[in-house]
Amino acid sequence: MPGGHAYTRTVMPVEAGFAALPDPHPDRDDCLAGERWWPPRMLTPGWVTRSAFDLMHVHFGVEQVPVSTLEETVRALRETGRPLVQTIHDLENPHLHDQAGHEGRLAVLVAAADAVLTLTPGAAAEIERRWHRPAVVVPHPHLVPLPRMQAARDARTAAGPVGRPVIGTTLKDLRAGTDAAGLLPALRHLARAMPDADVCVWLHERTWREPADDRARRTCRALAEAAADGVRLVVHPPMDDDALWSHLASLDVAVLPYRHGTHSGWLEACHDLGTSVVAPDVGHLVDQGPEGVYRWRPDGADESSVLAAVEGALGLRDEGLPGADADARARQVTEVRAVHAQVYTELLAGGRPGQGDGDLGRVAAAHPAGSTGRRREEAAG
Known about the structure:
By secondary structure, the chain is an alpha/beta fold. It has two domains: 6-113, no CATH class; 146-323, Rossmann fold, CATH 3.40.50. Helices cover 41% and strands 12% of the residues. The protein has 14 helices and twelve strands. The strands form three sheets. It has a six-stranded parallel β-sheet with strand order 7-6-5-8-9-10, sandwiched between helices. It has a four-stranded parallel β-sheet with strand order 1-2-3-4, with helices on both faces. Strands 11-12 form a two-stranded antiparallel ribbon. The longest helix has 23 residues, at 326-348. The two termini are 40 Å apart.
């Protein structure tokens, strides 16, 4: 759940005979291709009791379900004998300012889950500390389609070294987990310190023209000031996937603007396309293998560590592109699916994943999280 999400489609072990049910429309009993899945009806006791399925695996959309409904859904799963698997992508929800509700929902699901998965060793350790539950670590697979990924990487290799590197931060519509105002002073410092680089910020045009709240208005003012101080501002319409891949492939270094969070699909997409990543030291982003890490202070990004991280990431590009090629990512998907298939098979047989001969741990470790990036430790200070 949700069955139609790109991540869940990628990790579904179809070769082993498993398939996801289509997502029910939130307002109807049918499901039409391309329609939205949120708020998710699968996480309701009524849907559980009247639907034919063998196992529920929850990934996204939990923030839209009341805790009381989750508790009733868990009871319905138990009463009907269906196992529950929970993949924890976000220990902190990047779409929320207040995490209390998210933590409450996670507590319900983690306590009830027959198996818990997550993306990095650091997140698994945090899950163990918080809930005393072991978690199987399954690294994030590719996001960019494999042919598009390889074409972008081949084009970069053929082009050779760039003369004027493009260093970009993409703010989209200023979701809760980003702090543009806290990062912009560091980007202005970067533009002054690296005059031969093109330091850019991308923002949705509607957010620029019609800021939704005081936070957005403050950010737009700060962007205008940065644009007058050497940072190039690009105001654009929302991108579809094709436009997004082209955008990310146009960057040499992507600076992630997150003030809180756990993991980043954006980081994985950048690595797919050969774009280096500079990430803040929040959540467990470091475990995903960015090429540079900067410090996030209570008042925003540390300017000197952003500069050091970007310089280090650019230096690493002299050694080759970050990330793995399409063949390696395809092999990783095969192994990730094998982990999911084993978890599902053991649960449906009445077992507990990882309690048998140890194969699960070996499969999960075959492509450890962070293996597709190269991180400069010194950039974190």
